[in-house]
Design brief:
By secondary structure, the chain is mainly beta. It has two helices and 19 strands. Strand 10 and strand 11 form a beta hairpin. The longest helix is centred in the first third of the chain and has 21 residues. It is globular.
Length: 304
């Protein structure tokens, strides 16, 4: 009877620990949105994300916003990703995207797509969440993006619906700072991406796309032991492209976005994610880019 009672007690304690772990500071933001990061008990995680992004208009080179009239642009993107722990602080990741686009302009319409740009990278935790209570968690990332998609200059369709990438190798580095105090978290992400020069076969010259700076600020709150609601914003600034050694005037880009996200940890290893990201459709809040509303659905599996 004593052994039975001890087993029941141990089982109850394990269940309590498991329930609290789902809400622990180390875990709450790990699966809140996007690929996220590994929870402390995970050896690897796999995920599938799919999104639909209709464009409502575009910003021109001067930052003026114009809504589309006789033009439609819908992008569908799906991504399979994996995140694997190499040791207690270091993890590696890979992203495999597929892109499809439908566009119409007047009586002309087209649909196309293919493999997007595959990326490989690593994430190193300088300070884990809670490691030093007075300091935020700190993580560094390095990644390389391969030109596995089709670039704009290589398009074979009148509306460019077969374009799935930028056509250049891209090196990127990032810094993440996170403060977590149950039931909320705040995360700041800083990133720098540097495209490498690439040959433009159509023009017979070298081209280097402009380096870009990315800033993301997100916060979330745990509304139940298994549900986290977040709000994420991002800013992207890109300098002018370089063509044959000279800057292309007015080719710099600006993008701002804001939207909510929800994650539901519906089973021990499984999380369902839903997010919306929208541009801010006013003049001077974008440049040289279409303005999209992106709705994303994701499924994440984490294995101990």
């Amino acid at each position: 009877m004593r052994s039975l009672g001890a087993a029941v007690l141990v089982g109850g304690l394990l269940a309590l620990v498991s329930q609290r772990a789902a809400a622990a500071p180390c875990c709450m933001s790990a699966t809140a949105f996007g690929m996220g990061r590994l929870a402390i008990w995970e050896d690897f995680a796999l995920g599938l994300r799919t999104s639909l992004s209709p464009a409502l208009g575009a910003w021109d080179a001067e930052g003026h916003w114009s809504s589309y009239d006789d033009y439609a642009d819908l992008e569908w993107r799906s991504e399979l990703w994996a995140l694997v722990a190499l040791d207690r602080r270091l993890s590696a990741f890979v992203r495999l995207p597929v892109v499809a686009t439908h566009r119409s302009a007047g009586s002309l319409s087209g649909f196309g797509g293919g493999l997007g740009e595959v990326s490989l990278g690593a994430r190193y935790e300088v300070l884990a969440i809670g490691e030093i209570a007075e300091l935020p968690a700190i993580a560094l990332t390095l990644a390389v993006l391969a030109p596995t998609g089709r670039a704009t200059e290589d398009a074979e369709t009148p509306l460019g619906v077969d374009v799935t990438g930028r056509g250049a190798w891209v090196l990127s580095a990032g810094l993440s700072l996170e403060v977590t105090r149950v039931p909320w978290f705040v995360r700041l992400d800083l990133g720098l991406s540097v495209p490498l020069p690439a040959r433009r076969d159509d023009l017979g010259v070298s081209q280097r796309l402009g380096p870009s700076f990315d800033l993301g600020l997100a916060g979330g709150v745990e509304v139940s032991p298994r549900v986290v609601v977040s709000l994420a914003s991002h800013l992207m600034l890109s300098s002018d492209n370089i063509l044959d050694g000279a800057a292309v005037p007015h080719s710099d880009r600006l993008e701002l976005g804001l939207g909510p996200a929800l994650s539901w940890h519906f089973a021990w290893s499984w999380t369902l994610q839903l997010g919306v990201d929208s541009g801010l459709f006013l003049s001077d809040l974008g440049q040289n880019l279409p303005g999209r509303v992106t709705t994303t659905l994701g499924l994440r599996y984490g294995s101990p």
